[in-house]
Amino acid sequence: MNGLPSHLELVQGVVLPKPVGAHPVLDFVDTRSEWTTGGPPRTEWLTSYEAFLIWNSYAGLLPPATVFRLIEQAGSKPTEATRRLNATLDFRVDLYDVLTGAATDGSFEAVARVIEKASGRRRLVPAGPQGSAAEWELPEDLALPLDNLASLAGELLTSPSREHVRICPSCGWLFLDPRGRRRWCSMATCGNRAKVRAHAARGR
Length: 204
Ligand SMILES: [Zn+2]
Description:
Helices cover 49% and strands 11% of the residues. The protein is mostly helical. It has one domain (8-203): Jann2411-like domain (Jann2411-like fold), CATH 1.10.3300.10. Strand 1 (8-11) and strand 2 form a beta hairpin.
C-alpha cells in the first residue's frame, strides 16, 4: 500500500481526496482543506492545472481521452493553463460563499459571470441518429474543465437540490444531504474525530 490516509487516493501520480460530496460540484469545492478557518487551505489538492484535469477524470466529469489531449494542450500553453487554474480557484472560493449563504454581492456576481460565460459557449448538438436527442457540448480547450463545472454549478444553484447542501461543522466541506441524516462530511474523518473528542470529554 502507499501509506495514504483512507480518505485520500493516489490517482495518476496525484493525491486527491475521495469524493464525499454526493454531487460533483460539491466534490470540487471539497478539493481543499480548512474552509472553516477563512484563511488559506492547509492542504490544496488542485496544485496544478494538470492535477485539476486528473481530478476531473477521477470525478467522472471528463473522459480520459479528453483529459489526455488537454494535458498536451496545457504543456504547450503553460501561461494560459496557470491562468485557467487561478480562475478555477477563485471560482471555488466565490462558489463556496454562495453555497454556504456567506456570499457578498461581489462573490455572487463573480459566480454568475463565470456560469453565464460557460452557458454562452455551449452548443446544442445531436446525440442520436437523425437528431432524435440532443446534448450540450463545450469546445475542447483549456477553458473546458472550469466551464463544465460552472455549467453544473448553474444547474445545482437553480435546482431543488440546492436546499440539501450541508456544511460539515468540523472542516467546512460541503455535501448533499437529501434525507437529512448526515452531520459530517465523512464518518471516517470528521465524524470519528468528533466521537473521539466526545469520548475524551466524558472520561474527564
Ligand atoms: Zn468534515
